[in-house]
């Protein structure tokens, strides 16, 4: 049991999936930091500390522990870039409640990713993204690059949605939140990095199967909700105005903060339980690339949770060196809710469709 | 030579591509109208007249003249739906300068397309879109449905961008306009309807080749610019505040309206000329499905132009019956510009890359 800054008890995370970490994590962190310095992704020393403090290399090393070093590094470059962009333009800063300006920036960002010739002079975040895109096109196939680009646009569309809600002081209900937040919290591009890091290309007809899509969305959503938990751990909790699973449930279900934490855990565990029940059926008929992809979803969920539990709570805290032996974590032995019926959230209820099995 | 309402001469369109129209266009129009009535896509008789006046069935019959009737009908349902949605929520109406509210609506619309269980009770445009999506999933493969969904999100992201510009009274320059308008003007989903209508599935490794993507973007952009021309023909032109190729060039290049019309024709013809030069190289190495797709791009450009030239200028005008024999149109014999260098617009300059050839 962990306490938040405001004294709310956070139950341990339920995640019966194996964890691993890429053995070259130190070298990957060093090389990513050198890229950040070269590309001047950050504006000053304090931003540099913030972005390195997110430990994006550690995140990617857990997310894709069996990819080769170059692949994990490629993924880490985007993760660091996106942290910095997110902090300056999405979650904070002058655009964070200005959807009209952010929508244009999002258009430019997306085009910088897609078009090798796009003008990147207008905005400091564009040249490093173009450098990442050049590396991605050099190392990966056009199919993989296209999948990443689609995921990237989905992310930006979710951020505009979230910023629009903020501008209107609109608090989404659970259904809207689950549809919006998976996008805004980088779920789509981060999980698209699985194929970018490993270099595996799942054939289209398997990749776009509804059951594979459902598993992907469930994995993203569990990771997103775990990130809300990690943020609650780091930031003042009760009553704050941001859109997260706790404020959403407090408003939607009229719950006190501590009850919202319990309910959020049940929502999250019901999704992971459905993921774990559907997974073997899909694995049974999967080809070799899809098997790697599905294993990646599992590493993604577990790696994200473990990164979130281990990353220092405040940027000022000195983390242990990346390769250091790790203290074991406490995990919940069973899900907080074993209800097998669909969540009362129409936008995701189809994950429970029998036809997927 | 055609005159606009304000007396500006519009040169004829250059388009050396074969045109055709599906022979069952009358039946398709009748069936699509019955669907619109059943689904209550419009709000009143005047909206019904407006949406039927767009002649979406005629558009699709020219766009995909060799698809089977069920496929053209499926495409037409979306085209009619999108016209009505666009008119009520994007180009006009209370959301047309309210990006914060439109971004949320866009999120709900996209989720209604993707998730069969999504709640569609909040907005009258959602149930008909879900009905279209159900039909699409029944008739087409998950790969085709996923491609359409990506294109659909790209469209909505472009509309938010355009609405944000309107809210800020920001007039884009040519580079921004070419990146934004292809999206906002439905270029992506309309051209994704090529595969939805024909049922052809281009293998992923061909579909995502950069040269195929460049041809697709060029075809979309030519069609978009032709639509700006058609709108100029129908609406008062000079000095109005909307974002179109003429107002963009007037502002960006400091041109009088008549000169902006000439310059816009040169921009558009340079893109089509590049498309026509690149096409044979790509066709040479194309498999059977890609050949059908590339032929579709050609029908798309030509069909869109011809539909725009033949659709009545004002909703009140009675059109000839859909199957009637057609007067020949006047076409320009040669491009207004034979400059083979890239357009001075970085976001699209890569279409001229030698590596694509």
Q: Any chance you could write out the topology, listing elements then pairs?
A:
The structure is a homodimer of 357-residue chains.
Chain A lengths: L1 E2 L5 E2 L14 H15 L5 H9 L2 H8 L5 H22 L8 H16 L11 H14 L2 H27 L5 H11 L2 H12 L5 H4 L2 H25 L10 H8 L4 H28 L3 H23 L35 H4 L8
Antiparallel strand pairs in A: 1-2
Helix pairs in contact in A: 1-3, 1-4, 2-4, 3-4, 3-14, 4-6, 4-9, 5-6, 5-7, 7-8, 7-9, 9-11, 11-13, 11-14, 12-13
GO molecular function (chains A, B): metal ion binding; terpene synthase activity
Cofactor (chains A, B): Mg(2+)
Pfam family, one (chains A, B): Terpene_syn_C_2
Summed up:
The structure is a homodimer of 357-residue chains. Chain A has a single domain (16-314, 334-356), classed as Farnesyl Diphosphate Synthase (Orthogonal Bundle), CATH 1.10.600.
Write up this protein.
In chain A, 63% of the residues lie in helices and 1% in strands. Chain A is mainly α and 357 residues long. Chain A has one domain: Orthogonal Bundle (Farnesyl Diphosphate Synthase). Chain A has a two-stranded antiparallel ribbon with strand order 1-2. At the A-B interface, helix 5, helix 7, helix 8 and helix 15 of A face helix 5, helix 7, helix 8 and helix 15 of B.
């Amino acid at each position: 049991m962990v306490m938040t800054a405001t004294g709310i008890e956070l139950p341990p995370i339920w995640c019966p999936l194996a964890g691993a970490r890429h053995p070259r994590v130190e070298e990957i962190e060093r090389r990513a930091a050198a890229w950040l310095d070269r590309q001047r992704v950050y504006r000053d020393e304090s931003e540099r500390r913030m972005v390195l403090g997110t430990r994006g290399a550690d995140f990617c090393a857990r997310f894709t522990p069996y990819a080769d070093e170059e692949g994990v590094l490629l993924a880490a470059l985007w993760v660091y870039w996106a942290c910095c962009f997110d902090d300056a333009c999405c979650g904070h800063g002058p655009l964070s409640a200005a959807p009209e300006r952010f929508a244009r920036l999002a258009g430019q960002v997306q085009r910088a990713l897609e078009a090798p010739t796009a003008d990147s002079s207008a905005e400091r975040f564009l040249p490093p993204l173009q450098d990442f895109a050049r590396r991605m096109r050099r190392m990966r196939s056009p199919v993989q690059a296209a999948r990443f680009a689609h995921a990237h646009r989905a992310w930006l569309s979710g951020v505009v949605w979230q910023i629009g809600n903020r501008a209107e002081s609109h608090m989404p209900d659970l259904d809207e939140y689950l549809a919006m937040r998976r996008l805004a919290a980088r779920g789509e591009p981060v999980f698209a990095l699985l194929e970018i890091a490993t270099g595996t290309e799942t054939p289209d007809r398997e990749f776009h199967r509804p059951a594979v899509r459902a598993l992907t969305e469930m994995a993203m959503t569990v990771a997103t909700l775990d990130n809300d938990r990690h943020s609650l751990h780091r930031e003042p909790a009760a009553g704050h105005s941001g859109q997260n699973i706790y404020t959403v449930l407090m408003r939607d279900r009229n719950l006190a903060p501590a009850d919202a934490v319990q309910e959020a855990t049940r929502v999250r565990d019901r999704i992971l339980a459905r993921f774990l029940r559907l997974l073997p059926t899909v694995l049974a008929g999967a080809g070799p690339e899809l098997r790697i992809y599905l294993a990646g979803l599992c590493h993604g969920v577990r790696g994200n949770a473990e990164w979130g539990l281990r990353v220092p709570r405040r940027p000022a805290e000195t983390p242990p060196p990346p390769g250091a032996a790790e203290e074991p974590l406490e995990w919940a032995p069973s899900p907080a809710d074993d209800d097998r019926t669909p969540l009362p959230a129409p936008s995701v209820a189809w994950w429970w469709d029998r036809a997927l099995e």
